[in-house]
Write a structure and sequence with these properties.
Elements lengths: L7 E2 L6 H5 L4 E2 L3 H4 L3 H13 L7 E2 L16 H12 L4 E2 L21 H6 L22 H13 L1 H4 L7 E3 L7 E7 L6 E7 L6 E6 L5 E5 L5 E5 L2 E6 L4 E8 L13
Parallel strand pairs: 1-2, 3-4
Antiparallel strand pairs: 5-6, 6-7, 7-12, 8-11, 9-10, 9-12, 10-11
Amino acid sequence: MNKHFKFWEENFSLNEKSVEDGYDAVVGYLPFDAHIPQKLNDLLKRLASEGSPLPFFATAETHNTPRAASRAYGVKFSKFIWTFNCFLPEILFIHSGYELGESVPVNTGLGFTPEEQSKYPAEKLPLFSEAELCWSNKEQWTEYLRKIVDIRNQYLEIIENTSPNSIIPLQTSSDECVAFLRISADKTLVVLFAGSMKQEKAINLEISMNSEFAKFFSFISGKSFETEDGILKIPLEPFQAVCGELVQMNVSTPLMPANQL
């Protein structure tokens, strides 16, 4: 049997029934929740407490849902949720056109309002009629996509760890933020992801540390941030993704955020 072959089910829930029926993976519900901060935090808490009965698609869109780039903040949101997805121990999935900033849906099967459905009759939907992707879109972000994948590939041992204790959701200074750690049992590397969501102005992501001597190195910007009075502060723009390494500085005790969810 080919170990790389997966028999997946177009099921939008995560339950044991899919396992009993012989499936190796499911679509899952992330395409419907990816733009809602509380839903993302709920998913992180579920993965941290019980894991998932089987792998699901780490994607913000499918051919039946609204395009990620059609959500608030457009391509900025697409980049944000791509970074989030790349640090989950799930199946990365790209719906064609996602990386081009395509906003026209392929089909209006799921998650559309009646008004949105009337905006896209069958003759405007690629599932039923001839269409082309937005190849000339100036908001293509393939280089950023590749950069995050390269980062992911460097830390696959940590990221692909499916044990619940490898994911630690964090409580932040804003309800519109999503933050979590990926931790390896045998390494000191701690990978942090965080992003501000609906805020229209920059905020400081604040994480309480059990060490006054910690530093965060951003993989994306190359900047570093140090704790001040036991608080790690990272400035964030709306829908900005941040991922990097969190290290302790001259401290013998294990480094760990104090404000876990």
